[in-house]
Amino acid sequence: MRRVRPPESKREGTAAAASTDASRRRAVPSDRPSTPPSPVEPWFVRPQTFFGLPAHPVTGPVPAVDVLLTGVPYDGGALERTGARFAPRAVREASLRLGGYSEALGIHVWDEITSADGGDVAAVDDSAHALDRIAERAEAAARSGVVGGFVGGDQTVTLGVLRGIHRAKLKSVAMLHIDASTDTLGKAGAREVHHKSVLRIAREEGLVRADSVLQVGVRGPYSSDREIGNAIGAGFEIVKADDVKWDLHAAVSQIRRVVRQGSLYVSVDVSVLDPAYAPGALGTRPGGLSTWELQQVLRALVGAQIVGFDVVEIAPQSDPSGITALAGASVVHELLAVIADTHRSAGPAPSTTGRRRGRRVSP
Questions:
Q1: Cα–Cα distance, 51 to 96 (Å, whole number)
Q2: Greatest CA span in the chain, whole angstroms?
Q3: Is 70 helix (H, G, I), strand (E, B) or coil?
Q4: Could you say which DSSP state residue 103 is in?
Q5: Could you tell me the pTM of the whole model?
Q6: DSSP readout, 170-222?
């Protein structure tokens, strides 16, 4: 159906009101641009921040943006390979090679949302203090109405972020957990909190709604049958890596159901990818998803009420090629594009001169 444009004067009044609302919601200091530098600049001269975005000190107030990206150089919860503490720097560098236009969704990300690099949460070796600092940052973002995106670290980062969101919103959230493991195991020796126990603890603390947790990409070999049994017993829904490969359309349909369940937290552990695409993941297992398959899974989130996300378990020093960090940067970009597309859909209808063009949604 063709949209009827209002009279010129009325359009101007509506545009002025929308502009006022937008400036009130997204105001940033005049010396802090809300979008990255022009893409015509060579990537190697752009600011060394996520996507060349303006930088805001992590110790300062939460900037008035839509999405705040924060690095987490911490891997004290890892039981296997370490090195995820170096991920924020590597992902920042890789992200500078990526532009702001999502061809798959037909959207200019930075035209729809504002974002900033919030620096790094101070790294500490003590897990309790590290998770407290992560939770503080996540809580501050959530209270400000900003979507917090956390990049780097091992899977325990997710626990800190979920605690912060819960303190701010006083409610549990639905969760999409994209990972090769269910992360529902018990203690590892004397350690209660580690990267294989995060989802179990999150459920026990009431941070997530057990009947609204979807785990995608899970695959063996497992350390024991408890990895699957614990998740099923907790009420989690599982879409294994084989399920995605055999029927991507069905997997996307299951993800779309989670989108309709309210506030959603998204966690992406790059070990969900096959080692061919992410050799620098903390836990590598053969038979994982391709980068393209992961992109399709993420694009199914258009319309979701995302309240936060993380991209974890990247160990750059184990991958001299840098493709694991590039995969991590791509995941962040896909999530930003999804958030931007959702904002666009919720905003005023575009005029006939707008940039929106035909778009292809995930399978």
A1: 5
A2: 71
A3: strand
A4: T
A5: 0.85
A6: SS-EEEEEESSS------BTTBS-STTSHHHHHHHTT-EEEEEEEEEEE-S--
What is the pairing mode between strands 107-108 and 101-102? antiparallel
307/144 Cα distance (integer angstroms): 11
Q: What is the pLDDT of residues 81-140, one digit of tens each?
A: 889 999 999 999 999 999 899 999 999 999 999 999 999 998 777 788 999 999 999 999
Q: What φ, ψ does residue 316 adopt, rounded to 5°?
A: -60, -35
Alpha helix locations (H) across the chain? 8-26, 87-95, 109-112, 127-143, 156-169, 198-204, 226-233, 241-246, 248-259, 291-299, 323-346
Rounded distance between C-alpha atoms, residue 55 and residue 189, angstroms:
40
Helix (H, G, I), strand (E, B) or coil at 326: helix
Rounded Cα gap, residues 282 and 194, in angstroms: 13
Lookup result for tokens 């590039």: 326
**Structure token digits, residue 81:** 């390979």
**What are the DSSP E strand ranges found in 248-319?**
263-269, 305-312
Q: Which amino acid is at 265?
A: Y
Q: Which residues contact 266 (CB under 8 A, 6 or more apart)?
A: 175, 176, 178, 301, 304, 306, 308, 309, 310, 335
C-alpha dihedral, 305 to 35 to 71 to 227, nearest 10°:
30
Residue 57 binned pLDDT confidence (cut-offs 50, 70, 90): confident
**How many other C-beta atoms lie within 10 A of the C-beta of residue 343?**
15
Token reading at 38? 């022009």
Contact 244, 216 (CB under 8 A): yes
d(CA 115, CA 41) in angstroms, rounded, equals 19
Tokens of 78: 């890892």
Cα radius of gyration rounded to whole Å, the chain: 20
DSSP state, 55?
A: B
Residue keyed to tokens 């995605």: 244
Q: How many CB atoms lie within 10 A of CB 151?
A: 28
